[in-house]
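Quick one:
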Amino acid sequence: MDDSLHLEEWAGRTIRAVCDRPLGSTHPEHGYRYEVNYGFVPGVIAPDGEELDVYLLGTDEALEVCESAEVVGIVRRRDDVEDKLVAVVGGETWDAPKIMAAVQFQEQFFDSYVEVADLA
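Output:
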């Protein structure tokens, strides 16, 4: 788990993300299909030395770049060094069970849970 990634610092922020694994693509090593857009926040380094990963929810379109998404939560991994931001394109509301269902295609391989922001 990444103790340096704090939800209160990210919740409600609008971010730009580069989608290196767009919706419908397959994982280069493990072969599973990405059911949502997945990428990173340029210039923000995670504990693994790479840029901070982000799940992008709320669109059925494969994206290369997302210029504007709102951070609504974090996927916490108890058995990994880095956690993942969760950001939404558009105004749809996402709670923890809905987020976990959307990212289960990848999170099934980890001991993870979703921490959501109270943006009300």
